[in-house]
Amino acid sequence: MAIEAWLMDDTNEDPRLPHRRNPNQPVSMDQLAELGVLYWKLNPNDYGNDEELTKIREARGYNYTDLLDLCPEKVENYEEKLKNFYTEHIHQDEEIRYCLEGSGYFDVRDREDRWSRILIKAGDLIILPAGIYHRFTLDTSNYVKLMRLFKGEPVWTPYNRPQEDHPARKEYIKALTEKIGMPLAAH
Predict the structure, then answer these.
(1) pLDDT of residue 187 exceeding 90
(2) Residues 6+ positions from 51 with CB-CB distance below 8 Å
(3) Cβ count near 152 (within 10 Å)
(4) How many Å apart are CA 112 and CA 161, to the nearest integer?
(5) CA 154 to CA 152: how far, in whole Å?
(6) Where does the chain bind Ni(2+) (predicted)?
(7) How far, in Å, CA of 154 to CA of 63, rounded?
(8) Longest C-alpha distance within the chain, in Å?
(9) Cystine design at 129: which of 7, 36, 66, 120 (Cβ 3.0–4.6 Å)?
(10) What secondary structure does DSSP assign to 128-162, as a single string?
């Protein structure tokens, strides 16, 4: 089963709510792929021995991983951390997250600068391209266990919007404009 995504409404209610428009406006895997978002469905119960995960890591050069439990009981300054994750930003590298337990939302900007909300659940591996405006929050369950994957030493530096002159943003816009370098085969 593919990941579920939709265009968000414009309300300022609790970010942990689904924020579906009425009527709901689904966003397809192909639409996400056109933005450079990649997705795989894997087995979260055997991630240590998952051959598909090993293939993805080798093919994309992800040689470092760590695990992150996000919940009020395990994260100091939980509400402040969530607020920081939910601030719109880009990264100079891909953001790779594999959901092992729980659930949450990645929001990405589409070509019209609208928010598309992506629900991630156990087994979902998602890759956001460098330079895409995005943010993250948990849903109302307030729990997710994520594997973070990196090329080389982990770097997680957010560059808050606006970042139109950042090299990663410029490269991302160029790729969208030229429709090159955005593989569709992941999902």
Answers:
(1) no
(2) none
(3) 10
(4) 16
(5) 6
(6) 89, 91, 95, 134
(7) 10
(8) 46
(9) 36
(10) EPTT--EEEEE-TT--EEEEEEESSS-----EESP
**91 annotated as ligand-binding:** yes
Q: How far apart are CA 118 and CA 115, in angstroms?
A: 10
Tokens of 36: 């450079």
Say if CB 105 and CB 137 are below 8 A apart. yes
Question: If pLDDT is split at 50, 70 and 90, which confidence band does 186 have?
Answer: very low
Q: What is the pLDDT of residues 117-162, one digit of tens each?
A: 999 999 999 999 999 999 999 999 999 999 999 998 888 899 999 9
| β 134-138/95-109 pair status | antiparallel
Q: Judge whether 112 is annotated as a binding position.
A: no
C-alpha neighbours within 13 Å on the C-beta side of residue 160:
5
- 119: its two tokens: 């629900």
E strands in 91-132: 95-109, 115-121, 124-128
pLDDT at residue 182 in the model: 46
The predicted pLDDT at position 165 comes to 97
134 is in an annotated binding site: yes
Rounded Cα distance between 85 and 104, Å, is 12
Domains with residue ranges and CATH for the chain: 35-172 (2.60.120.10)
